[in-house]
Please model this.
Amino acid sequence: MAVTREQAEEAADKVPGSSLSARLYDPFLWFAEKTGFSRWRKRIVGQVSGSVLELGAGTGLNLDHYPEGLERLVLVEPDVHKARILAGKADAKGIDAEIVRAPGEMLPFEDDSFDTVVETLVLCTVADPEATAAEIRRVLKPGGQFLFMEHVRSEKPRLGRLQDRLERPWMKLADGCHCNRRTVPMLEANGFDVDVTAAQDKFPMPPVARPIVSGIAHLAPAGSSG
Model:
């Protein structure tokens, strides 16, 4: 059952974030954007269609990549500071979008509302990835698509162990970001058929925030084990 907008905003107020981290977000990612992230965003976001929900829209780094002619565009961002920056960018670019403050675990939308859900570098940060996956499933229409780009726990044993050791200090540094989440298996265990379309371990990001994977997921058939 969907929560109300008021309930979602109340929960969003408890999500980690600050005015300083919101202002530093774009500069922190500037070099990564110039050397690959922006191209990946364009490829992922360019696939959206119909009624679209972006989860964790942040400061609006995906705004330039949305195709024209969408039926509906909803940008969800819980952090009030990032949401203000997001709203300003959308207005400046003349993008017709609804901006909603809500955490990924509490989306104030009816079941089967969206043809596409898209997110980039979000599931590493949500407090409860399984609950967020369940919400994505709930709001997707039958036959809808979930497009994602995430940094995940490394399959390299030494780096994976390092990510495990640094998880807590990295969370404090990066507004609750978990550097060691196994996001693809989590999605598969929560009812999605996942196709990883790209993986890259060479982006100029801290080692704890690599590799980066992107892909497309659809709801698994009823009765599937995931």
